[in-house]
UniProtKB/TrEMBL annotation:
Organism, as annotated: Salmonirosea aquatica
Name recorded for this polypeptide: NADP-dependent oxidoreductase domain-containing protein
Lineage, broadest ranks: Bacteria, Pseudomonadati, Bacteroidota, Cytophagia, Cytophagales
Domain NADP-dependent oxidoreductase intervals: 5-274
Residues that span the membrane, as ranges: none
InterPro entries per UniProt: AKR2_Oxidoreductase, NAD(P)_OxRdtase_dom_sf, NADP_OxRdtase_dom
Highest taxon, organism lineage: Bacteria
């Protein structure tokens, strides 16, 4: 439990991203500093994608300039991939990223997995050649999780999970996934920064009661909202890795510090009682465009 469980997201290094991102896309020199600090702190894996702007290329430049600092890479196939392009695309990824093997190759959505399910033998062939270690799928809904659990070809499941999209929302599906030996990665630990934004409008206003509960619990235990939110994710025995994105070295260092806090079991039980009824509010993809 702690920093070794963290995966560093790179979408902010290739695009402007997040409701609470006021600084836009991260500059290359700042991104490199973030990568150096992450590696030195014990974070060994990056999450990226071809559609994250120039994130692949930035990681590759970093690896070539720092040959003694090599991250494991999780990346995602775009929705328009075809079987004839798979191996060529994966080989290009390896070159762009400056690595010999991709740790986890993911479908960017359950819909993408369904669309390309007939092409899985092609990916299995690339996997057997050692081009990537695990095959994964990034999910959004419980219904998708219930379906993907039954797919023997899928090794890794990435899904949203946080103090609002919590165990109460997952209805025991994480335990079922682990029982089928799936590796579980979670994202949206801070709900794209919503936990730190004002509560005067939009999604934050609609979730104001729940956000107030989070702040109250953090105050009750004498910790930051960041420590509460991250501690809740890291506490879960059913979760193998927790994905975080940052905008700065300072933010990364705060997250690393927060990851070292062990949340009391009583706090976990209190968080599990939070139940958001409008579940669409928990999915940033369904937020009004001004929040995306």
């Amino acid at each position: 439990m702690g920093v070794e469980k963290l995966i560093l997201g790179t979408v902010q290094m290739g695009l402007e991203y997040g409701i609470n991102n006021k600084s836009g896309q991260i500059r290359r020199e700042d991104a490199f500093e973030i990568l150096h600090v992450a590696h030195a702190s014990g974070i060994d894996t990056l999450d990226t994608a071809e559609v994250y702007g120039n994130a692949h290329q930035l990681i590759g430049v970093f690896h070539r300039q720092n040959p003694n600092v090599v991250f494991k890479i999780n990346t995602k196939l775009p929705a328009n991939s075809t079987s004839s392009q798979y191996e060529e695309r994966i080989s290009r990824y390896l070159d762009e990223l400056g690595v010999h093997q991709i740790e986890t190759l993911m479908f960017h959505s359950y819909a993408g997995f369904e669309t390309h399910a007939a092409l899985l033998p092609v990916l299995e062939k690339s996997k057997s050649k050692g081009l990537f270690k695990y095959l994964g799928v990034s999910l959004y809904e419980n219904s998708e999780l219930a379906e993907i659990i039954r797919e023997s070809s899928v090794d890794v499941i990435q899904l949203p999970f946080n103090v609002l999209d919590n165990l109460n929302q997952k209805a025991g599906l994480l335990e079922v996934a682990r029982s089928t030996h799936k590796i579980i990665h979670t994202r949206t630990a801070f709900l794209q920064g919503l936990f730190f934004a004002g509560r005067t409008e939009g999604v934050a206003q609609e979730l104001s009661a729940e956000l107030e509960t989070i702040e109250f619990l953090a105050s009750q235990y004498g910790i930051s909202v960041e420590s509460l939110a991250l501690g809740y994710c890291l506490y879960q025995p059913t979760i193998d890795r927790v994905l975080l994105g940052v905008d700065s070295v300072k933010q990364l260092e705060r997250n690393i510090q927060a990851s070292r806090y062990s949340l009391p079991e009583a706090a976990v039980h209190q968080i599990n009682t939070i139940k958001v009824k409008k579940t669409n509010l928990l999915n940033p993809a369904k937020w009004p465009k001004k929040h995306s």
